[in-house]
């Protein structure tokens, strides 16, 4: 067994390295991913070890990057594209939703597009405009795309491995504020399915469901609530499309209450679909309405105000108290 303690950044780097070693058709491409090693150093050292033909520095042109990746995938390659920051993805949005997501259906299943698009996302890093967005719902809404986000080093490694091996396009959201959080990684472990939710803390009174950067916040909320005699279960959703509704339902049938937490705005967020679906499925089990905690329906503010915008421990615990009060 090969177990090591790595940050999420190092785990993603190790996963890319493994994929490049195992499959000569895997390519890494994006702005500054080569010589610089990426602005977050996620791809550090890869170009030196695998060459400029495998780890490719591209022009600053997201639409061109994704369009090129589509062409490469059509020729049998497995490109892994990096979008440097979440807010930079929109020039490529047309390529992603009009071409990448639809080509398989358009070709009646004869064409596969194994493209992974890595997107560092979310706030709390003190960045300027266009660097702290949470656009995951815009992609989860598009049929033909898989959308996932790890919350820890082990998932960062293994979910990326599974995404690269998938014959379908995967949008892989990386929680940049958690990049340097460390955790154990077993590189010989057999991972569970890519789109399965995972219980990361058992509880009996209420389920907190989250993904990406908010899983750690929910774990902190559960620890704080325990001091007041409340037992909260924390469910790491891991996938926004498809969503593991069976896993959420199983937890809710046990705890009878659900609070969904994400950084993205509450309005039309992932939590809205989960709330609607779980209300349909678990109506006779629920002892309180499904509550949602997230960002506000407003443009992301300047960094000096982002602590007020982003959901934190207090807002999560307030929702817990409201749910338990029913």
Automatic annotation (TrEMBL):
Keywords: Oxidoreductase, Thiamine pyrophosphate. Pfam families: Transket_pyr, Transketolase_C. InterPro entries: THDP-binding, Transketo_C/PFOR_II, Transketolase-like_Pyr-bd, Transketolase_C. SUPFAM superfamilies: Thiamin diphosphate-binding fold (THDP-binding), TK C-terminal domain-like. It comes from the Bacteria. Its EC number is 1.2.4.-. One of its GO terms (molecular function) is oxidoreductase activity. Residues 6-181 form the Transketolase-like pyrimidine-binding domain. SMART domains: Transket_pyr. It is an enzyme of class 1 (oxidoreductase). Its cofactor is thiamine diphosphate. This is Alpha-ketoacid dehydrogenase subunit beta.
